[in-house]
Amino acid sequence: MVHEPGRPPRANPGNEKTLHFINTYTWHVAMYGPSSDGTYSELVAKPPGLRLCSLSLINCEESMLLDYYIRMDTQIPGSDPPRPLMQVILQMALADSTPSSKAVLQGILALSSLRLSSNAAAFTYKTKAISALARSLSLDKTRELTSKTVVASMLLYLYETTHPSPTVPSWALYLCGVKKIAKSYTEPTPCRCMDQGPFFSWLHYHEIMGHFSLVWWAPPDPPPICFVDAAALLGLSRSEEPDALRTQDSQLGPNSSPALLLQNDEGPVCSLAILDVISLLFHTISPDTQDVISPKQRQHLLEAENTLRKYLWNYSSSAKSAYNSNMSTLLHTIAALIFLNRASLDYTGEEAAHEVLVKRGLDILETPSVSFTPWPIFIIACEAHRDSARLLILDVMGRMEKLTGRRRLTLLRHLIEAAWNYHDLNLERGSDYRVMLHTIIRTAPYMPFFA
């Protein structure tokens, strides 16, 4: 709907500069009659007012890219903003013409263009997003400004994971930037995006997976990339994690439901409770971990194993049809157990219980509706030693590449094939799991990402 203030409609069609675009929907028109004749007050509830967006800030091509952004679903949760946040992010982008809003808008356009069309057009939007972000960072920090700069940085991070640089781990730098901006904001009232639980859960997941990348890929003296305090933004310090595990363990009794673990705790990619267990494993197990660990560390690892196994047991004994949305959490749980068994609990990979665990993970990957996440797929794929299992993994990779493009997953495919080659060449000699994992991840030309 077009409205020209101070003049009758179409009085001056030539002067478009005075026109205002009003974001009007059919239900606005439908409500006009009841509101004018007095019957509006008889309605049961007043619908919430919509926040008007400056649609005149975008052109036709950008409008199509925004429409793609709203509709896109790659089935890889980590590669997109969480659904509950997408509308909030869109409102930030279209709120006004400030540098921070432009940074969010150009970030959305860059990510959508990269997946929908050519790299050249996407790079143009990315350059504009970086320029607008740089201008916004020089301004005084406010609640809204910080919120938008954090979101814009996260969108640029997603761009770098979709189109990774072969020379530098740009995705890691952007992820660090997100954390630094969030931490630098000291006002007691949190910024708008930080009011959203899904945002912190989303950031928490990416940072934990980034820590795995750093530990297993980086040289002996790694660069100071800020992945060391993933839980701090959620209010959970590293020293508190074992206590948190014991709390979860006490809640998950023999007759408890898996819904108890997920209640008020379901992240956009994986249950936060399971994610905290995975974080503990990543901070305890590394290529430099000694073969003989301290009794305290072993106790923490056994508590983690107990928590993971109880979740699997409870899930198996419940009606699976009611928990299809939690398949991603189940996949992460299986991968975490495989990683723990092989990297710390001295499993050779030939144990019957371990093979059952691997088969269960492969069965989940075969499910058409499963959400694909790189880290669980990588861990399970490293245990795929039969041709049928490897063909299934390659089929899963093919489906993922159709959804996100080949470039995002080129490195993951390379690492999986390197793991298979390593296993086949050392079949008779045997190999240490941590040595194998470190060796194949170090073959990557740049720091890989598993989110």
UniProtKB/TrEMBL annotation:
Signal peptide annotation: none
UniProt keyword Ribosomal protein, yes or no: no
Location of the protein in the cell: Nucleus
Record's GO cellular component terms: nucleus
Keywords annotated in UniProt: Nucleus
Gene Ontology molecular function: any one: DNA-binding transcription factor activity
InterPro entries to which the protein is assigned, alphabetical: Fun_TF
Main location as per UniProt: nucleus
Pfam families: Fungal_trans_2
A GO BP annotation: positive regulation of transcription by RNA polymerase II
PANTHER family: TRANSCRIPTION FACTOR DOMAIN-CONTAINING PROTEIN, TRANSCRIPTIONAL ACTIVATOR PROTEIN UGA3
Protein name: Zn2Cys6 transcriptional regulator
Species, as recorded: Fusarium austroafricanum
